[in-house]
User: Fold Lrp/AsnC family transcriptional regulator from Pararoseomonas baculiformis.
Amino acid sequence: MPSPPELDSTDRAILRLLQKDAALSLAAIAAEVGLTPTPCWKRIRRMETAGIITGRVTLLDPAKVGLPLSVFVALEIGDHSAGWIEAFAKTVSEMPEVLECWRMGGDVDYLLRVAVEDMPAYDAFYRRLTATVPGLRNVTSRFAMERVKASTALPI
Amino acid sequence: MPSPPELDSTDRAILRLLQKDAALSLAAIAAEVGLTPTPCWKRIRRMETAGIITGRVTLLDPAKVGLPLSVFVALEIGDHSAGWIEAFAKTVSEMPEVLECWRMGGDVDYLLRVAVEDMPAYDAFYRRLTATVPGLRNVTSRFAMERVKASTALPI
DNA sequence: GACGCAACAGAAAGATTTTCCTGCTTTTCA
DNA sequence: TGAAAAGCAGGAAAATCTTTCTGTTGCGTC
Assistant:
């Protein structure tokens, strides 16, 4: 059975607002979507418990907190067993400088985005990664020059 | 002159908490860092006006809002003039399905992360991108199978 | 001893959350 | 087919909790 749309246009309007600014008051949201605060609150509550909203976070300026260098690391691996994959996911999840880790299809097996202070710090991370993770066949580091766009707002 | 550290250990503790959960009350933050709400509020206020805190956003589950496909697009360009670069940044910033766009050093000129509904939607995006942006020498699409880790919390 | 900074206590303003109510739509049953 | 009943979404108002602002104190420095 094709489940009915979980989100109507009002829900999506609320989400568009909250994706841009999680600190908006219910009164402001309500005015924007044409409701009173109470039904807005109930809708947000529902989307939170449904797992549609996964969290509210504070974003920082990477340069201003001393992490101006972003590196994308493409990994090719030798061992494709379920055990290796699980262990790798755990290892990488525990590395705080790895902000994103994607398992990919195609020529690259994993793609990481890493935030570090400078090149020596990246080298230290690189050594730690290659020492900790066994069976890496190829590691390609690509360095970001400029963050042209960095959004967390999905187009809904 | 080596500017004094803008952030002391209390500031960083507050930022670590707020990066994980922007909805924490001042009372909860204050208890965690060992202060009363008022100085916490002043510190947060200061970091907001200083641009260290760039915003508070709501995160959604991409699959649950109908955007389960993430694609990384590597671009190589022919024209490296300042005008082209500026126009490209503007074009890409206005495309809502492009969540991230990085200007890179090395073999790849730009790396994009794109969120779409499915493969036909990606194809439509691809056609629009290549039709809109002139002078692309090479476009390589890599498809994500699994989001192993996706964090917005910088390691401070 | 005076100054400046950071924290604190308490109060006022504002926001969130709850409770209860109304009207609409859908369902069910005679 | 019609009508009562149930369920759903929104709204008003009150209670609770938070944020924000005021003045004040304590500590370290000069």
Notes: Residues 35-39, 42 of chain B lie near DNA strand C (CB under 10 Å from a C1'). The longest helix of chain B spans residues 119-132. Chain B has a mean pLDDT of 95. Chain B has two domains: 9-49, 63-143.
